[in-house]
């Protein structure tokens, strides 16, 4: 009597186990990501809200609840607005040359080069160098007694200031953008290269047969084919480019004794650097305001990224629209092809070659069909 | 049945989460142990070189090895300390070197630091006062920074101005030197030379601010004074900004990326030189002949910086760390530090030590630099203790210095720069 009751129970347990396995295991398998994301992603973001709404001291921690006072305070600071201008200026100075040059380099690497791997690895070398090291080297180059300054002084430019790359706001942006470009062009070029390699070679062959030159192929085949990658790269560039920090902080030699606070008139103060100065700089009780900057800036980034996304999409899709063959052209081509087919068939018939007749007429039909399908699409 | 299964699922998930959580926090156990017992190693966070014999001697006496966590400069040590204090002492060393400029900030919560037993008659009185919070000693003084002027005698000679230390001292005003007479000498010099008079007027103004009894805040209440009504600071600002407009300053201060290169290119004739800066100048101006220290300073001299050894209260070896801090600040240790780094001792017997006063300095043409600084420190007296520094001192000082730098770089004129500085200050809302 005991065994029949025990037996189904055991089966039930195994069954339940396997049911758990089906239902629970998948969640367990993916849980490491979500747990770490909760700890390192969701929690800091949520905690940031709490900090932003309080008077928060670096050492003393939580102070009084101040509501939106921190946000109001930040919006009142001239330095905050200056930092936004600087950030966008540096961003524009870096994203445009970066896009152009990395596409160009990728296109060159995509050709049949000798010692391919060597060239591909070489473009990645600047990316391996620590951004801080890059910044220190470049700040020497752009310094008052560096490589570039005496040169442009010789040319008679900016001779009214001793150290134009530090004292002129725009030039300091150029210098910092140069560091960013130096670091990221190779990296982006490799991403573009990977995408370019996936473009079917037949498209290039077809383009060559149609008489498209290298340039035409690049703009009409390569660019539209790597559109998803371009959107990805532009979006990551936007987010990363707006968060410039290392280069700006290291530009005047912070860590070797420089203040690293973005220049005396905030010439190269970026928003993230401003955030850092507030939260971790000379002020003791600005953690709440720093969090407010983080939130405001996050909103700016989201807005700007969306804008960029829409722009990028519309630009690349409008190009593919332009390539569509107008219906009139299709009709004309079909008519020509038919005429040519009939003519050659007639010629063949007249020449008395029965075998060729079938072949020519079929090819003619095929051609018309492809064109028709193309126009339908 | 259904509910039961769901509950089990949740329980299983909770168990896994707990497992992961404990696995994450598992590493924290080790660091707290060993209190009371004798540690094998004590760590010191600092940004200067230590004489190896000194560290070896401590190991011989106490059987504890001393390891130096070396930082390239004070600012990076400051950052590590900030972060450590904000996270309950994580990553801190047993003994920390703290510079006077950020002493107030680190002492925001005095309980963070172990109270050190008094050592009678070791330091000048004002150094002990600086190192105390509410009457409790929180740091043992290492060095002080009596102020002097270093100058390039070669450039002075080329400009046809007195190039010997006495003549130079006389030129900037001698005993009665003020900032006005100092800058006036600068105008004379720049009229006859291509080089600037001083590396940075902002540095000079910072020294001048150090001489004010209450620069930015009220010593009694600790409240911030409105900058717009701060006549003393405004006057200093105008004095230095005016001179900067006339090209007296090169606008490249200590710590600027171009500072070393500027020395090598002989771009300026004088530098504000606290005792601890002698070593830094010797390093940056290496290979140049003719730099000297003049026994003179505007407004009767003063003090810039100087440091303390403090012991974080959260450390596992507070008692031994205190012994080490004591050991590292004995007069003997201070003399060794002076000979190695040029840091002028804050210990009274060390100041009088012939090794300090009589050792010739190789870079400064064999001058007995220790004697000069000893004389300047004595002349400045208790005034060297400097003025009141509240919580906002460092921040406001940066703001004002940035204003002056805008004039130095030619981006703004003196009055515009002052107005924009005041506007930035007002936007901070410190006096609301």
Automatic annotation (TrEMBL), chain A:
UniProt KW keywords: Cell membrane, Membrane, Transmembrane, Transmembrane helix, Transport
Gene Ontology process terms (BP): transmembrane transport
Record PANTHER family: ABC TRANSPORTER PERMEASE PROTEIN, INNER MEMBRANE ABC TRANSPORTER PERMEASE PROTEIN YCJO
Domain called ABC transmembrane type-1: residue spans: 84-308
Location relative to the cell: Cell membrane
Top-level taxon: Bacteria
Compositionally biased tracts (Polar residues): 358-377
Region (Disordered): 356-377
InterPro entries associated with the record: ABC_transporter_permease (IPR051393), MetI-like (IPR000515), MetI-like_sf (IPR035906)
Sequence intervals crossing the membrane: 27-53, 88-109, 121-142, 170-195, 226-245, 292-311
Organism the protein comes from: Xylanimonas oleitrophica
GO CC terms of this entry: plasma membrane
Protein name: Sugar ABC transporter permease
Major location (coarse): membrane
TrEMBL record, chain B:
Keywords: Signal
Cleavable signal peptide: 1-23
One Pfam family from the record: SBP_bac_8
TM region(s), chain numbering: none
UniProt keyword Transmembrane helix present: no
Protein name in the entry: Carbohydrate ABC transporter substrate-binding protein
Protein source organism: Xylanimonas oleitrophica
Phylogenetic placement of the source organism: Bacteria, Bacillati, Actinomycetota, Actinomycetes, Micrococcales
